[in-house]
Design a protein that fits this description.
By secondary structure, this protein is mainly alpha-helical. It has helices at residues 2-26, 35-38, 50-61, 65-73, 79-105, 111-119, 121-153, 158-174, 181-202, 225-232, 241-250, 258-284, 288-347, 355-361, 364-373, 378-406, 412-431, 440-467, 472-475. It is built from 19 helices and no strands.
Length: 476
């Protein structure tokens, strides 16, 4: 169990050490009044305690992501532990922190607006479309599964289950954040944590030992680790969906120093949850071959249910049912809330509208297509979430890198992971079954050309900054 335990220790140590480095580079100032006070509106902007914001952020970004994704990633063996630790600390947590703190710095701006501010309006237009599509795909994918389970466990039909879920979605999207989300999310956040901690404790009493990383299992059979693992395990390592969620809580923080605990801390907590479920997947079925058979027979939800019931008894079964039903729904509702916020921010530039009318009207364009997509196959939907999600993450890392570069700060903490994720997304889409399905070698060559193009662009940005070293915000 040495690899697993060391991974958990590294994540915890990374929070206490590296989060302070990132915070110092960003440059917080608790004398600055946050948007929660300067823009209080009784809907999205309102002060909230950091611990409640942390639990809401964890549930927003996690849901079933670090459970389902980690179990699928466990098929790669213990190398998944390395990706979760490195990806979480040096890419995901940095990504989440800057998406939240830049939003605070710029009055609670949404992700696409932040992108436009530092990468230009052309990229902003593209990412506006991509991020809203991602929100709708995530909401649809995380709604169909729970509705199917409710149909199996209750007298309700699939359509009736969907209708109930969407009534809740509309309420979560239009009500003030402290009325519904602020009250029930901390409870659900505790359920997610209890579920993970219980399974983590049970790992010590399983019949099989958690495998350690060795040279023999570094490359699992014929499965190419690069770049598939980095897309398979997104939640728990790095996920672009998080950059759309962080501005929701950025509008509620009382001071800038809370950002380290809320944004960086929630990401590390999600990483630990992913480590636990990846370890459970590798161990419970006696190895990756057994896990693959279990996935083929019962799917990811079936694997979660079997692990929970067997290790924790009736209590585990209840947790599994609550998790598979509640957790994805709580990801879908904030996906729609954030897309509603993006649309409100977009239409506000075309004239003044009544705020309540805007909130209701901008909810319709995201709820309707989400409902229609729930009629499609879940696997098909999820297949397209993965790559889109990591493209959004890559763009956010480059946004943070440009902010740091243009303000004369140490940009490498974001630039290095941005280059890494550029290579991941650039090569993945050519090889993946949902992409161009080219040969592995050809896909890597195509990805290398994309990486080279971005590298040249970055060199131009470096040269431009060297010739004009005035901090970006002052120059603007």
């Amino acid at each position: 169990m040495a690899t697993f335990l060391l991974s958990v220790v590294l994540l915890i140590a990374g929070y206490f050490i590296y989060s302070k480095v990132v915070e110092r580079v960003f440059g917080i100032d608790d004398t600055r009044i946050t948007p929660a006070f300067t823009k209080t509106d009784g809907l999205d902007y309102m002060p909230m305690s950091w611990w409640k914001a942390s639990l809401i952020q964890l549930l927003n970004i996690a849901g079933l992501g670090p459970i389902f994704g980690a179990i699928m990633g466990a098929l790669y063996g213990p190398v998944a532990f390395i990706w979760i630790v490195i990806g979480c600390l040096f890419a995901g947590a940095v990504h989440d922190y800057f998406s939240g703190m830049l939003s605070i710095k710029h009055g609670g701006e949404q992700y696409p607006t932040l992108v436009g501010r530092y990468l230009g309006n052309t990229v902003k237009t593209v990412i506006n479309i991509v991020s809203i599509i991602l929100m709708i795909l995530v909401a649809a994918a995380f709604t169909a599964g729970p509705a199917q389970l409710v149909e199996q466990l209750t007298p309700l039909s699939y359509s009736s289950s969907l209708l109930l879920i969407f009534v809740y979605f509309v309420l979560a999207a239009v009500l003030p954040i402290n009325k519904l989300i602020g009250k029930i999310y901390p409870i659900f956040g505790f359920i997610l944590i209890i579920m993970a901690v219980s399974i983590g404790f049970a790992l010590f009493f399983m019949d099989h030992s958690i495998p350690n990383l060795t040279f023999e299992n570094l490359h699992p059979g014929e499965i190419p680790v690069w770049p598939l693992l980095m897309v398979t395990i997104s939640c728990g390592a790095i996920s672009g969906f998080h950059s759309t969620q962080s501005p929701i809580l950025a509008r509620t923080l009382k001071k800038e120093s809370d950002g380290r605990r809320v944004f960086f801390g929630a990401m590390v907590a999600e990483g630990i949850i992913a480590l636990i479920w990846a370890a459970a997947g590798m161990t419970f079925f006696g190895g990756t071959d057994g896990l693959q058979g279990a996935l083929a027979e019962g799917g990811t939800a079936g694997v979660v249910n079997e692990i929970s019931k067997t290790t924790l008894g009736q209590f585990g079964g209840i947790l599994a049912i609550l998790g598979v039903i509640i957790l994805p729904i709580t990801t879908g509702d904030t996906a729609l809330r954030s897309s509603r916020m993006m649309l409100v921010e977009l239409v506000s530039k075309f004239g003044n509208f009544d705020s309540k009318m805007k909130t209701v009207l901008m909810t319709i364009p995201v709820v309707v297509p989400t409902y229609l997509l729930t009629q499609m196959d879940y696997t098909f939907l999820w297949r397209y979430v993965g790559w889109t999600n990591q493209v959004v993450a890559t763009v956010m890392l480059w946004t943070a890198a440009m902010y740091l570069l243009k303000n004369g700060k140490f940009h490498w903490i974001s630039t290095v992971p941005a280059f890494f994720m550029t290579a991941v997304t650039g090569s993945y889409i050519f090889y993946a079954p949902e992409g161009f399905q080219l040969s592995y070698q050809t896909s890597m060559i195509c990805g290398a050309f994309i990486f080279l193009a971005v590298f040249i662009w970055f060199l131009i940005q470096l040269k431009r900054h060297k010739n004009n070293p005035i901090p970006f915000e002052k120059a603007a």
